[in-house]
Write a structure and sequence with these properties.
By secondary structure, the chain is mainly alpha-helical. It has helices at 7-30, 39-48, 89-93, 96-99, 104-115, 121-134; strands spanning 66-68, 74-76. It is built from six helices and two strands; from the N terminus they run ααββαααα. The chain is elongated. The model has no long low-confidence stretch (mean pLDDT 78).
Length: 140
């Protein structure tokens, strides 16, 4: 059966819970992770309360923090972050962008068709096989 915890066990659980709380607090608020420090270093930080001065801590910045950009203008940090949804218009102008997703042999065949070169029998066979694979079935 189950026996109730003794008072010593309850103190140990409470002590561990408090330690876990402070570890999570420092970990979330400042990125501080004392697991990688030596035991002597952890003891020194605990005695002198040096947690805020830890060199291993991650320093958090606000997106509204003023920053001087590469041109010398004062702007907010959030404005300097690249936008994933922004279009690279210069990249779309070059023909190499659409080539990335296609097989190299299909790209060669497309260039031959674009320049007006005659396709070899092997090229025609490869192109017809690719078209057949990619064609949607109309009737199941």
């Amino acid at each position: 059966g189950y026996k109730p915890f003794t008072e010593a066990v309850m103190y140990r659980i409470a002590s561990r819970t408090v330690a876990d709380y402070w570890f999570n607090h420092y970990s979330y608020s400042s990125g501080l992770d004392c697991k990688h420090c030596s035991k002597a270093q952890r003891q020194k930080c605990k005695e002198d309360d040096l947690y805020t001065e830890c060199p291993k801590a991650i320093k958090l910045e606000y997106l509204s923090k003023p920053i001087t950009d590469s041109e010398g203008n004062l702007t907010e940090l959030g404005n300097l972050i690249a936008d994933d949804k922004a279009l690279d218009l210069d990249g779309w102008v070059s023909s190499s962008t659409w080539e990335i997703g296609y097989k190299p042999r299909l790209v060669d065949i497309a260039y031959k068709l674009h320049t007006g070169e005659a396709l070899t029998n092997a090229d025609l066979l490869y192109l017809s096989r690719y078209r057949r694979q990619e064609q949607k079935r109309l009737i199941d």
